[in-house]
Amino acid sequence: MREEGFADDGLFDQMKMFFLPLTMVEQDLTIDDDRWSQFASRRLEEQVALQQRCEQLLEKLIEIEDEYYRHDDSITKLRRELEMETARRARKTPDGEENFSVPQLIEDHHQEMEKLEPIRSELRAEISTIEGMVASIEQGLCDRITNLDRNLIKPNRGFIMYGPPGTGKSDIMSKLSVRIGVNIVAPPLAAGELNRSLVGESERIINDICMRCHQT
Predict the structure, then answer these.
(1) Most buried by CB count within 10 Å: which residue of 6, 19, 165, 213?
(2) 70-80 tens-digit pLDDT
(3) d(CA 149, CA 168)
(4) Domain boundaries in the chain?
(5) pLDDT band at 59 (very low <50, low <70, confident <90, very high)
(6) Chain centroid, CA 180 distance in Å
Protein backbone atom coordinates (compact mmCIF):
# COMPACT_ATOMS: atom_id res chain seq x y z
CA MET A 1 0.00 0.00 0.00
CA ARG A 2 2.88 2.33 0.67
CA GLU A 3 4.22 1.57 -2.81
CA GLU A 4 0.87 2.70 -4.22
CA GLY A 5 1.31 6.10 -2.64
CA PHE A 6 -0.46 5.73 0.70
CA ALA A 7 1.55 7.31 3.53
CA ASP A 8 0.71 6.08 7.01
CA ASP A 9 3.65 6.74 9.38
CA GLY A 10 3.64 3.07 10.41
CA LEU A 11 -0.12 2.86 10.91
CA PHE A 12 -0.67 -0.01 8.46
CA ASP A 13 1.41 -2.47 10.47
CA GLN A 14 -0.51 -1.62 13.63
CA MET A 15 -3.82 -2.03 11.79
CA LYS A 16 -2.74 -5.46 10.57
CA MET A 17 -1.96 -6.60 14.12
CA PHE A 18 -5.28 -5.16 15.26
CA PHE A 19 -7.24 -7.19 12.71
CA LEU A 20 -5.23 -10.40 13.16
CA PRO A 21 -7.76 -12.15 15.48
CA LEU A 22 -10.44 -11.55 12.84
CA THR A 23 -8.51 -13.33 10.09
CA MET A 24 -8.11 -16.81 11.60
CA VAL A 25 -7.70 -19.79 9.31
CA GLU A 26 -8.47 -23.44 10.04
CA GLN A 27 -4.85 -24.12 10.97
CA ASP A 28 -5.12 -21.53 13.74
CA LEU A 29 -8.11 -23.38 15.19
CA THR A 30 -6.44 -26.81 15.35
CA ILE A 31 -5.12 -27.98 18.73
CA ASP A 32 -2.10 -30.27 18.38
CA ASP A 33 -0.66 -32.57 21.08
CA ASP A 34 1.84 -30.03 22.38
CA ARG A 35 -0.74 -27.28 22.72
CA TRP A 36 -3.16 -29.71 24.35
CA SER A 37 -0.50 -30.82 26.87
CA GLN A 38 0.18 -27.21 27.82
CA PHE A 39 -3.53 -26.51 28.06
CA ALA A 40 -4.16 -29.61 30.20
CA SER A 41 -1.24 -28.76 32.50
CA ARG A 42 -2.58 -25.26 33.14
CA ARG A 43 -6.08 -26.57 33.73
CA LEU A 44 -4.82 -29.18 36.20
CA GLU A 45 -3.01 -26.46 38.15
CA GLU A 46 -6.19 -24.39 38.18
CA GLN A 47 -8.18 -27.42 39.32
CA VAL A 48 -5.83 -28.11 42.24
CA ALA A 49 -5.91 -24.45 43.30
CA LEU A 50 -9.71 -24.38 43.11
CA GLN A 51 -10.03 -27.58 45.12
CA GLN A 52 -7.74 -26.21 47.83
CA ARG A 53 -9.76 -23.00 47.93
CA CYS A 54 -12.97 -25.03 48.15
CA GLU A 55 -11.61 -27.04 51.09
CA GLN A 56 -10.70 -23.83 52.92
CA LEU A 57 -14.17 -22.42 52.34
CA LEU A 58 -15.79 -25.64 53.53
CA GLU A 59 -13.81 -25.52 56.76
CA LYS A 60 -14.86 -21.92 57.30
CA LEU A 61 -18.47 -22.77 56.49
CA ILE A 62 -18.42 -25.60 59.04
CA GLU A 63 -17.17 -23.17 61.70
CA ILE A 64 -19.87 -20.65 60.83
CA GLU A 65 -22.55 -23.35 60.78
CA ASP A 66 -21.43 -24.63 64.21
CA GLU A 67 -21.61 -21.14 65.66
CA TYR A 68 -24.96 -20.51 64.00
CA TYR A 69 -26.54 -23.65 65.40
CA ARG A 70 -25.02 -23.07 68.83
CA HIS A 71 -27.05 -19.88 68.94
CA ASP A 72 -30.09 -21.79 67.70
CA ASP A 73 -29.65 -24.42 70.42
CA SER A 74 -29.28 -21.68 73.01
CA ILE A 75 -32.54 -20.10 71.86
CA THR A 76 -34.31 -23.45 72.11
CA LYS A 77 -32.95 -23.98 75.60
CA LEU A 78 -33.91 -20.48 76.74
CA ARG A 79 -37.41 -20.85 75.39
CA ARG A 80 -37.78 -24.11 77.26
CA GLU A 81 -36.65 -22.41 80.45
CA LEU A 82 -39.03 -19.55 79.77
CA GLU A 83 -41.90 -21.97 79.39
CA MET A 84 -40.89 -23.54 82.71
CA GLU A 85 -41.28 -20.07 84.25
CA THR A 86 -37.58 -19.41 84.75
CA ALA A 87 -37.96 -15.68 84.33
CA ARG A 88 -34.43 -14.45 84.75
CA ARG A 89 -30.86 -15.57 84.64
CA ALA A 90 -27.74 -13.94 86.00
CA ARG A 91 -24.63 -13.24 84.00
CA LYS A 92 -21.37 -11.73 85.17
CA THR A 93 -19.61 -9.12 83.07
CA PRO A 94 -16.23 -7.37 83.47
CA ASP A 95 -18.07 -4.30 84.76
CA GLY A 96 -19.87 -6.18 87.46
CA GLU A 97 -22.99 -8.25 87.70
CA GLU A 98 -26.00 -7.51 85.52
CA ASN A 99 -29.29 -9.27 85.17
CA PHE A 100 -30.76 -10.04 81.76
CA SER A 101 -34.22 -11.35 81.14
CA VAL A 102 -34.62 -14.53 79.10
CA PRO A 103 -36.35 -12.67 76.22
CA GLN A 104 -33.37 -10.32 76.01
CA LEU A 105 -30.97 -13.26 75.84
CA ILE A 106 -33.07 -14.83 73.10
CA GLU A 107 -33.00 -11.56 71.17
CA ASP A 108 -29.21 -11.40 71.52
CA HIS A 109 -28.86 -14.87 70.03
CA HIS A 110 -31.23 -13.93 67.20
CA GLN A 111 -29.09 -10.92 66.35
CA GLU A 112 -25.95 -13.04 66.26
CA MET A 113 -27.68 -15.50 63.93
CA GLU A 114 -28.74 -12.67 61.64
CA LYS A 115 -25.12 -11.52 61.42
CA LEU A 116 -23.99 -15.02 60.47
CA GLU A 117 -26.71 -15.63 57.87
CA PRO A 118 -25.21 -13.51 55.02
CA ILE A 119 -21.78 -15.05 55.68
CA ARG A 120 -23.28 -18.53 55.34
CA SER A 121 -25.03 -17.59 52.09
CA GLU A 122 -21.89 -16.02 50.63
CA LEU A 123 -19.75 -19.04 51.49
CA ARG A 124 -22.29 -21.46 50.04
CA ALA A 125 -22.54 -19.44 46.82
CA GLU A 126 -18.75 -19.28 46.42
CA ILE A 127 -18.39 -23.00 47.11
CA SER A 128 -21.08 -23.76 44.54
CA THR A 129 -19.34 -21.57 41.96
CA ILE A 130 -15.97 -23.23 42.56
CA GLU A 131 -17.49 -26.71 42.36
CA GLY A 132 -19.01 -25.75 39.00
CA MET A 133 -15.64 -24.51 37.75
CA VAL A 134 -13.92 -27.72 38.88
CA ALA A 135 -16.58 -29.82 37.15
CA SER A 136 -16.15 -27.77 33.97
CA ILE A 137 -12.38 -28.32 34.02
CA GLU A 138 -12.83 -32.06 34.58
CA GLN A 139 -15.29 -32.25 31.69
CA GLY A 140 -12.93 -30.33 29.43
CA LEU A 141 -10.03 -32.63 30.28
CA CYS A 142 -12.10 -35.77 29.70
CA ASP A 143 -13.59 -34.62 26.39
CA ARG A 144 -10.53 -33.53 24.47
CA ILE A 145 -11.31 -31.01 21.75
CA THR A 146 -9.06 -31.26 18.70
CA ASN A 147 -10.56 -28.36 16.78
CA LEU A 148 -12.12 -25.14 18.00
CA ASP A 149 -15.45 -23.99 16.64
CA ARG A 150 -14.94 -20.78 14.70
CA ASN A 151 -18.31 -19.53 15.96
CA LEU A 152 -17.01 -19.63 19.54
CA ILE A 153 -14.41 -16.97 18.75
CA LYS A 154 -16.10 -13.59 18.80
CA PRO A 155 -13.57 -10.80 19.26
CA ASN A 156 -15.44 -7.69 20.36
CA ARG A 157 -13.54 -5.22 18.25
CA GLY A 158 -14.00 -3.05 15.22
CA PHE A 159 -12.20 -0.26 13.44
CA ILE A 160 -13.45 3.25 12.67
CA MET A 161 -11.62 5.69 10.43
CA TYR A 162 -12.40 9.32 11.08
CA GLY A 163 -11.17 12.61 9.71
CA PRO A 164 -12.04 15.45 7.31
CA PRO A 165 -13.72 14.59 3.99
CA GLY A 166 -11.46 13.74 1.08
CA THR A 167 -8.49 12.49 3.08
CA GLY A 168 -8.62 8.95 1.66
CA LYS A 169 -10.18 7.04 4.57
CA SER A 170 -12.39 4.89 2.34
CA ASP A 171 -9.54 4.16 -0.09
CA ILE A 172 -7.22 3.13 2.73
CA MET A 173 -9.78 0.78 4.28
CA SER A 174 -10.69 -0.68 0.89
CA LYS A 175 -7.06 -1.46 0.09
CA LEU A 176 -6.38 -2.76 3.58
CA SER A 177 -9.38 -5.10 3.54
CA VAL A 178 -8.08 -6.74 0.37
CA ARG A 179 -4.57 -7.12 1.78
CA ILE A 180 -5.44 -8.73 5.13
CA GLY A 181 -8.78 -10.35 4.34
CA VAL A 182 -11.25 -8.41 6.46
CA ASN A 183 -14.69 -7.30 5.40
CA ILE A 184 -16.10 -3.82 5.14
CA VAL A 185 -19.64 -4.28 6.40
CA ALA A 186 -20.98 -0.77 5.81
CA PRO A 187 -20.50 1.99 3.26
CA PRO A 188 -18.73 5.14 4.36
CA LEU A 189 -20.93 7.35 6.51
CA ALA A 190 -20.77 11.06 5.84
CA ALA A 191 -20.43 13.51 8.69
CA GLY A 192 -23.77 14.09 10.36
CA GLU A 193 -25.42 11.06 8.75
CA LEU A 194 -26.04 9.48 12.14
CA ASN A 195 -27.74 12.60 13.47
CA ARG A 196 -31.24 11.63 12.36
CA SER A 197 -34.18 13.77 13.39
CA LEU A 198 -36.51 10.84 14.11
CA VAL A 199 -36.21 9.10 17.46
CA GLY A 200 -34.41 5.77 17.18
CA GLU A 201 -33.15 6.20 13.61
CA SER A 202 -29.52 6.72 14.60
CA GLU A 203 -29.67 3.65 16.87
CA ARG A 204 -31.25 1.62 14.06
CA ILE A 205 -28.36 2.39 11.72
CA ILE A 206 -25.79 1.39 14.33
CA ASN A 207 -27.69 -1.80 15.23
CA ASP A 208 -27.91 -2.71 11.55
CA ILE A 209 -24.14 -2.36 11.16
CA CYS A 210 -23.56 -4.47 14.29
CA MET A 211 -25.89 -7.18 12.95
CA ARG A 212 -23.92 -7.28 9.71
CA CYS A 213 -20.70 -7.65 11.69
CA HIS A 214 -22.16 -10.53 13.67
CA GLN A 215 -23.34 -12.33 10.52
CA THR A 216 -20.07 -11.90 8.66
Answers:
(1) 19
(2) 998 988 888 87
(3) 37
(4) 11-26+151-215, 31-146
(5) very high
(6) 32
